[in-house]
Amino acid sequence: MATTAEFTIEPFVEGEPGPHVRAAIAAAEAAGLTVEVGPFGTSVEGGPAAVLDAVDAVVRAAVEHGATRVSLQLTVA
Length: 77
Hints:
Blueprint: E1 3-10, H1 19-30, E2 34-37, E3 42-46, H2 48-64, E4 69-76
Helix pairs in contact: 1-2
């Protein structure tokens, strides 16, 4: 079963992900998840336990590095 978490981290500057975005991506990569960076957000995919565990690290990293908002959508298929 695959689980996908899609998140958008603000403040958003097109073409220049800030430290809050880069830290969140690094946290997801450190968790061993597949990361896809898109123009309006980032998605990570993996097993349910791995994604759920990583969501905490991703959100914490974003906030600790200056995020003012994190929007998250979780899909379990």
